[in-house]
What does this fold into?
Amino acid sequence: MDLTTDQRDRLDQQMTFLREADKLKGVLRASKLLDNSRRENSAEHSWHIMLYATVLGEHAGPDVDVSRVLRMLLIHDIVEIDAGDAPIHGHVDHEAMALKEAAAADRLFNLLPADQAHDFRALWDEFEAAQSPDAQFAKAIDRTQTPVGNLYSGGGSWIEYNVTMDQLDARVGTPINRGAPVLWAWLRPLLAGFFAKR
It folds into this structure.
């Protein structure tokens, strides 16, 4: 099969983006694997929360399109290739980080053909704004994975960052309860029980 110049150019752009996306595997997060053997990387996190959304999708609201949520979760942290990870309980200049992430989104998504660049950026912006039902559920899932992991690994990054239950209520509970109240109703008592023993 002979490719047209347009097909070849499009594939070249797509492959450039995919090669760049491979760098997400090298971005280490604050959270560790459940066996505490090493830090999780951002690519692993993205895969795992997509699995979370697939398994827990039945707890989404009636207006949520889980297939769109999966696409959001797949690309939501790709900006960490340039901006790095910002631990939720770390000391982060959120305004400066938002600017770094927006610049990263511009650079990374613009590696794609224009139509895909536009679609990916719009999906990423929707996730960041967390206003639509899809984005609220995606945020809830993103905020669920790490606390569940910390519960099953003896505290994980909570110990390193000296996290309190009040911090979890504010930083984790609010987005989970907003996008998936059933998950928060299940998770909060477990968290409270863990912190009551500390």
The radius of gyration is 18 Å. The chain is about 70% helix and 5% strand.
